[in-house]
Automatic annotation (TrEMBL):
Keywords: 2Fe-2S, Iron, Iron-sulfur, Metal-binding. Transmembrane segments: none annotated. This is CDGSH iron-sulfur domain-containing protein. One of its GO terms (cellular component) is cytoplasm.
Amino acid sequence: MPNEPAERARRITVQRRGPLLVEGPVEIELEDGTTVSSDRFRVALCTCRRSRRYPWCDTSHRRKA
């Protein structure tokens, strides 16, 4: 629609051996279909699946495997 404001692109920062940093707010759909959301200005998403707060990163990736 021509009169609708353009939505600003989200910035996602990839960190080697770390979480994905996503500019918020965000809404995430999990594998089971549930959604979680955060209104923070930046969120860290777990990529190693070690987090006890998945999908949010709790720095568990820092521990040795």
